[in-house]
Amino acid sequence: MIVDVPDSECNAVSSFWKGRLADPEIPLYESSRVEKSKSRANAFYRRAVDLDIERMVEAGDQSACTCIGEMYHHEWGMDVRYSTAVKWCRKAAEQGHAIARFILGFMYHFGHGVDENDSTETRPC
After folding, report:
1. Is 121 a domain residue?
2. Global pTM?
């Protein structure tokens, strides 16, 4: 469904997801309807920034917090800043966002922006 949303009707979060679908470095998403291209994916990530994803984040949108956290973590339309990625993913995770919790766990496991902690007994959120 995200693929079929016209670009003129996309908000920042749907533009982010279009980027993930088009990103050839993310093999999870395969579809004959989606052209895989890093330049196309980067264009969608930049569009999310242009559509002011940061405003959505500041307004407390959990999905936007998770998206911008991933963008900072993976350098998708943003410079890599692990500490900023942790900040926004933690905010969404504390509100119960499952994907944000997964990403935050990944950052703890690898020590990206936080002290490395891969203990199964520790719950960062």
Report:
1. no
2. 0.77
